[in-house]
Amino acid sequence: MTAVAGSLTDAAPQGASASRARGRRPVTEWRVTRVVAPLVAVGVLFGLWELAGLFVSTSLISSPQQVAVDFVDQFISGPAVPALELSLRELYIGIGIGVSAGIVLGLAIGRYRLLDAVLSPYINAANATPLNVLIPLLLVWVGIGTEARILFIILISFFPVLLNTAGGLRNVSKGYVEVGKMLGLNEHQLMRKVILPASMPYIFAGVRVGVALGVIGMIVGEIEVSNVGIGYFINLYGNGFRTGQLLALIFLAALIGVANVLVIRGVQARWFRWISAAR
Amino acid sequence: MTGEATYTTQDPPTAASDPVAPRSDRDKILRIESVCKTFFTTRRTVHALDRVSLDVHRGEFISLVGVSGCGKTTLLRILDGLDTADSGTISLDGVKLDGVSHDMSYVFQDINLLPWRNVLDNVALGLEVRGVGKAERRARAMEVLELVGLASVAKVPPYTLSGGMQQRVGVARALAVRPKVLLMDEPFGQLDNFTREALQVEIANLWEKLGTTIVFVTHDVDEAIFLSDRIGLFQPGPGRLTEILDVDLPRPRTDYDVRAHPRAIELRAYITEHLRGGKEAAR
Question: Is A193's Cβ below 8 Å from some Cβ in B?
Fold first, then answer.
């Protein structure tokens, strides 16, 4: 490969044929590490759990079978369906607003140094504060309803997106910026065609964190603000020692988190493939 | 040493005396007059350039050679407007330059192709901001890609290319805007020997074909001799252009091994000696 690398005729992208030639082993390896190993791990866990269920009281750990039954009972047709709907609606409204606001303000702060200087004390203070201390304040301001819960989700998902976006803009490789300047891009074009796309890896990282925190915010809000949605059932089952149903809820929460991650990854893989490919 | 550039007044030993046209008659595309640049850091002050003056002739290939830290890259960056001079002027075709010039483009050592654009769109970026329509800029970008032999990878993301291919895209990107002057900053410094030699030949051919004026920074003496009409020698501490040599070797130099040419051997010895002296002066 090296020998032809500089010649006029080595038109095919380097490595295309090479990776085909040794294609077999990596695919097998990939299957083992990405598919087989996790399945085995999960299988072992469930086996041990089922086994433990035989010896320990069901109010402590229940059993996978029971949890599965409870899951279906609660969330496929049971009483928790409207609760889940409410939770998800509030979650996605909150995340939608929090993440978009974080990106927009992050872009502004990353771009304008003065804005950054003015706002950074507040942002740093807010980011360092455990935001659930704000809940009582939110209750005083907007009452104990949907608004307070959504507001909390907005707040908690907002900061990581903001900080990552602003940081991303500032950390864009100097080399990219110089290429843009050299080609004669004005400040606006530089922003749109170089700095913004170059910050996408950071923005995505921020969104992943923000969305994950949003799910936490949803549950926390439903327990601490007002007892509705999934949070209501968590309280109910927890207080009633109904471990099977409680575990079913935990799985549900995990499922929401995983689904979110998959969507974000999908968007990145579809429209921003270079982010993972270029490294 | 006066710090002034001297135009080959003192010829290197046994210079073949076949001067081309008198210098004053030649068309000067780029005039660099008494450019100074000092960098201040918290630890020390670096006099990167001290009264550097140089006229670049239209269509010539001129190399700037010197040890690391002698200011040659700084000068190139100032020419393109990526840095500003503390004093002195630069004019292109009689027009004084201020900021980034649309008539010059730069080939970086770190190519930095934008990974979110495919090869063609990387090459077309400069045309995009010059208001060239989509169809035309695609066509023009394709044209320069063909020139560097990379038309077949136009649609491919740049990070899938080898280092040598990426650097050729870097050259294509700079050429796409049809610059009057092409500035190249150690463009082949990070490539392996074979790739570097292949690209040197390619650049020489491109230059013969296009007639673009090229200012080329390198610390590779053989590279400079192979490519250049003239070589400007830099000395560090403070960075000065101390001498300009004519490379009076026949062209095209791809026809024979230029490094074995007796005149090339003389030049190499002379330049090496000169640079070694500079290194000692910097200590």
Answer: yes
Nearest CA in chain B to A12: B153
CB contact under 8 A, A277 and B129: no
CA pair distance A183, A151, nearest whole angstrom: 44
Give the residue with greater pLDDT, B194 vs A3: B194
- On whether any CB of chain B is under 8 Å from the CB of A6, the answer is yes
Give contacts of A7 with chain B, Cβ < 8 Å.
198
* A25-29, A44-48, B112-116: least confidently modelled range: A25-29
Which chain B residues have a beta carbon less than 8 Å from that of A273?
157
- Band (pLDDT 50/70/90 cuts) for residue A145 is confident
Looking at B150, B178, B206, the residue that finishes a domain is: B178
Q: Does residue B12 belong to any structural domain of this protein?
A: no
Contact B82 A182 (CB under 8 A): yes
| B192 lies in the same domain as B254 | yes
Say yes or no: B238 and B204 in one domain.
yes
Q: Which residues of B fall within a CB distance of 8 Å from A2?
A: 192, 194-195
Q: What is the domain count for chain B? A: 2
From A136's Cα to the closest Cα of chain B, the distance in A is 45
B70 to chain A, any CB pair closer than 8 A? The answer is no
Contact call for residues B36 and B83 (beta carbons, < 8 A): no
Domain contains B22 = no
Q: Give the pLDDT mean for A29-40.
A: 83
Mean per-residue pLDDT, B199-222: 93
Judgement on whether residues B134 and B37 belong to the same structural domain of the protein: no
pLDDT in tens, A204-253: 999 999 999 999 999 999 988 888 888 888 888 888 888 888 888 888 88
Residues of A in contact with B198 (CB under 8 A): 5-7
What residues of chain B lie within 8 A of the CB of A272, using their CB?
A: 116
Tell me, yes or no, if A176 comes closer than 8 A to chain B by beta carbon: yes
Same domain, B252 and B279: yes
pLDDT band per the 50, 70, 90 thresholds, residue B260: confident
Residue A20 has pLDDT above 50, yes or no: no
Q: Which domain range does residue B127 map to?
A: 109-178
**Does the pLDDT value for residue B203 go beyond 90?**
yes
Q: Which residue of A has its CA nearest to B114?
A: A176
ipTM: 0.83
Q: What is the pLDDT of residues B113-131, one digit of tens each?
A: 999 999 999 999 999 988 8
CB-CB: which of B80, B125, B162 is closest to A193? B125
pLDDT score recorded for residue B278 = 59
pTM here is 0.80
Final residue belonging to a domain, choices B133, B158, B178: B178
Q: Is residue B249 in a domain?
A: yes
Q: Which residue of B has its CA nearest to A188?
A: B129
